[in-house]
Amino acid sequence: FHLVHASATNQYTDVVFYLDEVGMLKRLSLNTRASKYAYLAGFNPAPQFYGDIFIGRLQRKPTLRHKSFVLGIDTAPDAPWLQAATLENLQRQMELNRMTGRSDTQLAVAGDGQM
After folding, report:
1. Which residues pair with 59 in a beta bridge?
2. pLDDT of 14-27, one tens digit each?
3. CA atoms 39, 43, 48, 50: torsion sign
4. How far apart are CA 103 and CA 15, in angstroms?
5. DSSP H helical segments within the chain, as ranges?
6. What is the pLDDT of residues 32-77, one digit of tens each?
7. Taking a C-beta distance cutoff of 8 angstroms, is the pair 42, 89 a contact?
8. Residues pairing with 16 in the sheet
9. Whether the Cβ atoms of residue 14 and residue 58 lie closer than 8 Å to each other
10. Is the pTM of this model over 0.85?
């Protein structure tokens, strides 16, 4: 699950969750901390994640390399990458909309009156 996609504004750095995609079917516990990170990154409503989540960061340019997180600094709710994530995700969505001819910023959710 991509929290942040690589772009020029973040030095081409992806931030991703590695997760068990069938965690809910396995009846794993809800991971509220992961949902909070997604919310802080601009996902509203935040997705629900189940089970253990591993967060990773990859820099894609000039060469592909893993970038470690510094516990307590890069994992804090006010970490610089997380503060910039909402705007970066919105800009990415707007660019995708421009390329595909769509005008919405978020897909309609069943039951919200937009379907």
Report:
1. 13, 65
2. 999 999 999 999 99
3. negative
4. 26
5. 32-40, 80-100
6. 999 999 999 999 899 999 999 999 999 999 999 999 989 999 999 9
7. yes
8. 2, 56
9. yes
10. no
